[in-house]
Design a protein that fits this description.
IolE/XylAMocC-like, alpha/beta, TIM Barrel, Inosose dehydratase, single chain
Length: 324
């Protein structure tokens, strides 16, 4: 996509099961789809082990030999580079960290989480990426609500990692999650206040904000100086009553509909009944000459190739973004 905004596409929607997105030919097919849809830059999502071999830095390098070897792999599909990597340090499935379960809200875990960040920082710098996009805190249902002191603990961890990314010439963007323990707008602003604006930014996800009850357009207009990264997608639903606090919300809400028979929460741009004001949000980005990456994603929303084509169509026909 050629535009005043910089567009990238997220690969996370392809990797829906451990046995689906493993072979290099499957990955090439996805990359070629993204490229054919007009995107020459991608965002990676962290994973674990050989079953997620396009996600974990150490495994990518083992497969492709070097940073340049991986970039050559991308270029075979006419994808020129990596904008960013998404990383959730709370994920309990990282075999590289011994399957340890840690939380940014626990001061005793801070040193280990900072150490865990180093391979992602090194890899992202090595492939010429720009933003380490992170889930700042775990799910709300797993712990008591955070008070201001708890939010400060979380902020301190990200300030330390922000120093690492800044030293490597990278940005750090905290990604709001509709299931996260930092959930309300007040809590999110509190977390931003607890972090250094020189080294820690915000990744604004339009669908996650909307599900969580935060207006992404209004929030961006008020806090544009802190927004350094964008995930652009739509949703047809909002949390109707603290469903994010349901035990096992990752399944009971996002995969089970919280009793409302919602098959999926995340949708392509322009979906019928979409709650996100996509055109208004993109207009706000343009008004502020937003310099970061706008990453289009659907996040396990359905057939990935179909969704990539629908998103490309919307950008071209509704937002006037030239394909090339």
């Amino acid at each position: 996509m050629r535009d005043t905004l910089r567009w990238a596409y997220a690969l996370n929607q392809w990797n829906v099961r451990l046995d689906v997105f493993v072979r290099h030919e499957e990955q090439q097919r996805a990359l070629k789809t993204v490229s054919a849809c007009g995107f020459d830059t991608i965002e990676l999502a962290s994973g674990t082990g050989r079953w997620d071999n396009i996600s974990r830095p150490e495994v990518i390098l083992a497969n492709h030999g070097s940073h340049e070897g991986f970039l050559d792999f991308l270029r075979r599909a006419k994808v020129q580079g990596v904008s960013s990597i998404f990383w959730d340090p709370q994920a309990p499935t990282e075999e590289e960290e011994g399957y340890a379960f840690r939380s940014t809200a626990n001061p005793g875990d801070s040193d280990a989480i900072v150490e865990w960040a180093e391979p992602f920082v090194d890899f992202l710098a090595g492939v010429g990426g720009e933003q380490l996009v992170v889930r700042p805190v775990g799910s709300a249902w797993m712990s008591p609500p955070l008070d201001p002191d708890g939010i400060k603990v979380v902020g301190d961890v990200w300030n330390r990692i922000g120093e690492l990314t800044s030293a490597a010439g990278l940005g750090l963007a905290l990604h709001y999650d509709c299931l996260g323990a930092v959930h309300t707008q007040e809590e999110l602003v509190g977390l931003l206040d607890a972090t250094d604006p020189a080294t820690v930014g915000l990744a604004l996800d339009t669908a996650e904000f909307t599900i969580g009850g935060i207006d992404p357009v209004a929030f961006y207009r008020e806090h544009a100086d802190r927004v350094t990264h964008v995930h652009l997608k739509d949703t047809r639903y909002a949390d109707a009553g603290e469903e994010y606090r349901m035990p096992g919300a990752e399944s009971t809400m996002l995969k089970g509909g919280a009793g409302r028979r919602i098959e999926r929460w995340f949708y392509e741009l322009g979906t019928e009944g979409g709650l996100v004001d996509v055109t208004g949000f993109v207009a706000a980005l343009r008004e502020r000459d937003f310099p970061g990456w706008v990453v289009v994603e659907s996040d396990h929303g359905g057939n990935p190739a179909e969704l990539a084509m629908l998103n490309s169509w919307y950008l071209q026909r509704e937002l006037g973004v030239p394909k090339s």
